Amino acid sequence: MSAKQEANSKKRIGLGRGLSALLEDSSSVLGSNLNNELGNGIESIGMMEEIPLNFIETNPYQPREHFEQEALQELAESIRVQGIIQPITVRKIAPKKFQLISGERRLQASKIAGLDKIPAYVRTADEQQMIEMALIENIQRENLNAMEIAQSYKLLMDECSLKQEELGQRVGKNRSTVTNYLRLLKLPIEIQISIRDGKLSMGHARCLVSLDDSELQMNLFERCIAEEWSVRKLEQAIREPNSPSILPKGGDFNANDVKKYQAAFAQFFHAKVSFKINEQGKGEIKIPFNSQDELNELLKSIQK
């Protein structure tokens, strides 16, 4: 058998033998000792290797900001039993130093599981390519929340100088979908946090982002959360603010009463004042301030 035929035969035998067999084949080509490989400068780009965890630094452009600890523990337990099913992706930035492109959850869970090494695809990429690959792979593979997707889209556009249409082509979404996510970043931070934490759905968010008045956005958001409004009811509140089904049912309040009280308090405190009234006629008054001086002015108003 010729050398070429023997190589082809080994390649065919390797198919279907699982991840460990593939890693063994890769090691036989690159050298079984990764430290020697790195020390001798043998190029491993484009191959799959088992890399020590302490050689890998996390990705600064990781779009996911929050990892559920219970889910990580479950993944770690699965890794202890089954091993890593899907390798992570890294780029080589120096001898014995790699930077994660995708697979943050698998990397963190592997550390919890007590592994020393992890299978990884090694890719070559400059800084911009790494940013683009990391964000796109995570957007496509991970179960990101709406705010994480929106922030990833914005980062991709800024770092890679992409227009919305170009971004849509990169991530396989139409332009209107990209636009809807990017508009979430214009919402007040309290609403963004609620979306991130799963307290407010994307449907609710799209309703609120259609409003230009941030104070009105906050008023409707607070009622939406407190009274557990459906998307349809929020849409009705925006479209028909004086609808009997939207106005509080308790007490003698109506839309004109609320406006009257709000205007009176605003005039008294010389500040924007917002009201939150529930269906039982109970509520609260919010008076925002931007500095200690403004707070002192509010105090003086009360003490007059």
TrEMBL record:
Coiled coil regions in record: none
Record flagged with keyword DNA repair: no
CDD domains: SPO0J_N (cd16393)
Keyword Disulfide bond annotated: no
UniProt cross-references to Gene3D superfamilies, sorted A to Z: 1.10.10.2830, 3.90.1530.30
GO terms for cellular component: chromosome
Single biological process term from Gene Ontology: chromosome segregation
Family: Belongs to the ParB family.
Organism domain of life: Bacteria
Transmembrane segments: none
Pfam families membership: HTH_ParB, ParB_C, ParB_N
Keywords from the UniProt entry: Chromosome partition, DNA-binding
Protein name: ParB/RepB/Spo0J family partition protein
Any GO MF annotation of the entry: DNA binding
Domain ParB-like N-terminal: 49-139
